[in-house]
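**User:** I keep going back and forth on a fold encoding question. It is easy to fool oneself when nobody else works the same problem. Could you pick a protein and write out its sequence and tokenised fold? Could you put it straight underneath, so I can go through it closely?

**Assistant:**
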Amino acid sequence: MKKTLLLTIALLLSTAMFAQSRAIILSESFNTSGMPSGWGVYGGGTNSWTVQNTNRAGGMPWEMEFFWEPQFEGTSYLSMGSFDLSNIPSFVISFKHYYENYSNESTIGIATSSDGGATWNSGWSKTFSVTAQYVQNELITTSDVGKDNVMIALYFEGNSYDINYWSFDDFLIYSQEQNDINVNTFDISANLGVGQSEVKFTAKNLGTNAIESFEASYQVEDGETVTQTFETNLASYESEQFTFDTKATLFPGKYTISLNINKVNNGDDQDMSNNAATKDVTVGYGIAERIPMIEHFSSSTCYPCVFVNTAMEELTAANPGKYTYTKYPMNGPGTGDPYYTAECGTRRTYYNVNSVPTIFLDGGTSEAPVTQLALDRRLNENSFVNIQGAFQVEGSTITVAADFMAYNDIYNAKAYVAVNEKTTTGNTGSNGETEFHHIMIKMLSSAQGQAMSINAGEIQHVEYTLDLSGTHVEDMNDLEVAIWLQNQSTKEIYNSKFAMEYTEHLYAVEDLSAVIGDNAVDFCIAWHKPEKGNPTGYNIYLDGELLFENFDETNISTDEGEILNYLKDGNKHIVEVVAVYENGTSVGSAVLVVFDGTNVSEMAESNISIYPNPAKDFVKISGDDRINSVKVYNCLGMMVEEIEVNANEAEINISEYNTGIYFFNVMTENGNVIKKVVKK
């Protein structure tokens, strides 16, 4: 049997007339499962064209797919609709496509019709035989161009049996001006960490003239507009990514960023309709490296699974450390895989899987096999969740510990932990394979997952212990543990990771706090060492930038001018502390600190003094202004005591204070002043 029979989606066929601007005739990138309005199929292959939730061609999911089955031989026209091409002598069509060859070669082309699809005239065609991703930019001139009712179609010509599938995306049809630049994509990530972020975009030359320079600008909400002139040498049809020199400084929250290209070659762009883009972004406390999660439904009695398993083994071998993987043995076709469990069935129901092989990448795109392109796309997307875990084995018992840290508020999520065996042989079936990889043995605590909500900056910790003697495990020394956090509304996986193997967990710091004095003279960070584990030190980050590396204390106070100037640049800052171990680092613990010196009295600050400092038993506070009271805080932000003064000076007994750093909030009749005191 050549391949499995995939479900086909009923085509929604319709025809439509579209009013066109001078330059852009059609722009279609597909964002739903149905056929776009006005699109339809003529000739053979009526049921071969569907919109799939994949991104093989190089765009974003979704995309148009031409599938080999039902098999036919001949020409199939995918009409994109009817267009008014009056006074347009030619047009350009641009699109991305991914061709997967099975045997021989096949042809695609662009054709037009001005008699309702009875006659098609080809304006371009090309024959392909090599599996790869391609981009086409073709100038089309046929006898139909220039008329007021012209159908434009992509066509396949050949025997559909010779391909596995052909995926298409990002269709753009336009007539050319001399100077015409297009914002092709706005490349800033939708998930950003606090601090400075690069603003990137890709521009494409749709005109006949080469573009030597252009002026572009961006704006965050209603903030200041950043404008820059970019020097380039962009030939017709070419595209290039550009980055603004001035980064966007962002604090936690949600923003809309707008982008505009204003001038081209020191003059006006002849079509301004394609010069703008916007992007909605979410800014969290920080960002984490994304490790894509692969969930693979397969069976040792499935013949098409052999091809997919081979392709996935090649993909994973080429990407060590860049994926997490769990394979669920299924109870079909036929007798099914001997290692099938009810937990595998629970995950199958969760995803509504009805055939194998089926693979989900990060809970979204369903593909078999996963392409390098799809994996790279997920790897390049920021995550707001950091995961760290480890497991140990004693006899037949496994113990797993894991931390989930969120840089943004996470709700309605579930944590999943799957114990896999790296290689199994005991589940050999009828498809000819003798060994299998990443086979799910047991899910902890169950296949239903553990409900979890996490506030930004916080950590959720889980631990499980289970005797695996009643499972299909073959070798207790060949285990791996996959951990992931999944959104239960969208099924998107926030992030995933393989646990560290046969070793102790890297526990995170506890009780992190940070204090900035009202006048930014004092800055203190404090935390408690992990309850378990022995870190060699701590890495301290301020707004994502490494402030101190492998620091060996559990609190730090600084009034260094460079740091204080940085703090004054904005009123919100993120402090993160990560425990450092000999074999790696824990997840971080993060906290939001706010600086607002608007209520500080300069007069009060200049008149107040505290001495001695450092002090052992007593400190004296004095000033020209009347002191109403003094509040004393430790470096964890907890108030130690409050002292009524109502005089110009006071003496405070600190002999029973623990050694460390304290903040004295001196409240005077002319304002408040915060002073740092070191207790010896």
Remarks:
- Residues 190 and 281 are 4 Å apart (CA to CA).
- The helical segments are 304-317, 342-351, 372-379, 561-568, 602-607.
- Residues 602-679 form a domain with the Immunoglobulin-like fold (CATH 2.60.40.3080).
- The first strand starts at residue 17 and ends at 18.
